[in-house]
Amino acid sequence: MSGSLSLLGPDDPVPFRVTQATAEGPFVLVSDHAGRAVPRTLDRLGVGEGDWERHIAWDIGIHGVGIALSRLLGAELIEQVYSRLVIDCNRAPGHPTSIPDLSDGTEIPGNAGLSEAGRAQREREILHPYHDRIAESLRQRTRPTALIALHSFTPEMKGVKRPWQVGILYHRDKRSAGIMLDLLRQEGDLCVGDNEPYVLTATSDYTVPHHAEGADLPYLEIEIRQDLIADEAGQISWAQRLARLLPLYWNAIS
Ligand SMILES: [Zn+2]
Q: Measured in angstroms, how far is the CA atom of residue 26 from the centroid of ligand 1?
């Protein structure tokens, strides 16, 4: 073992959770911020229990949406189970904000002054296995495929309220985004964010640039506001809406 103990112990979960496909559809669902597990050795990163309920720890509600959507579409779903505070899996390896020592005003003592070896360990044991699993799924596909990245966003950031219920983020694949933005606007009851609440770039995000844009794979990065999917009813309702719209999107691009 050359002296370096592993980060994940026998009581820690493997870093990704796969829900198998049950139908032959075009979609692979991925969810970078679905979980909030912390390796036992990191001792909750020194963060208080209340902060583990907040959006800084994970994408609130998106696990329920992802599971329900996977079931409705019969699509494979790959979720990261560790908290974004341990390592943000939508950031490239080595990215300066991927292991934050401050997140939306909350200090993360367990990340302060993290050594290069400590960073490398989190990348090796949590970030890479998750992305390797996504890559493996995409490599094994024999049908035309779209990557669907599922996220949720906090309704208020630094005192500013966000009006959108849902946003589509994109960089190079403007065609997919344009179709889905139109479909969402046609719903009639939604304020739809066009590259809001964030603009997707080659460096701000990792999952879509790395797996989709690099391979010319069509994709959608979908952000749902967290207050709408805080409970199971909201999660099911949004999964049903997406399960109705995603096939329309696919018909339009294929
Ligand atoms: Zn997210």
A: 22
